[in-house]
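We close this part of the discussion by returning to an individual protein. The amino acid sequence and the backbone structure tokens for this protein are reproduced below:
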Amino acid sequence: MSFLEKTTEHPTAVTIYEYIRQNIPGISLGTVYRNLSFLVDAGKIIRIRVRDDTQRYDAFLHEHYHWQCRVCGKVGDLSMDIDPRLNDEAERQSGFKIERHELYFIGICNECSETVYASEKSP
């Protein structure tokens, strides 16, 4: 939990496991997965399922949108307001009682854009 509270990187379970293993060498990846599931179920963290179906974790509980780089897979927070009109429109179209929505934007992060766009300019 303390690792997630200190990072904005939205790490995977494996990344968290590698970090924790530095301090608790005998910990198993299964233990990390079980604890992450417990924290999600308890409402202490959120699980983000991104485009490549990788699960990422976030301790920032305020509703917010995310972005994901289509090149490196990095995930970040967006500070824009949640648009409640999306819930209303989805409810109107589907007939479902919409409780909330999750949205992430896909693009290219600053680090990758230099490489991607530089290679597009090369002959």
Remarks:
- The CA atoms of residues 52 and 81 lie 25 Å apart.
- The first strand starts at residue 46 and ends at 49.
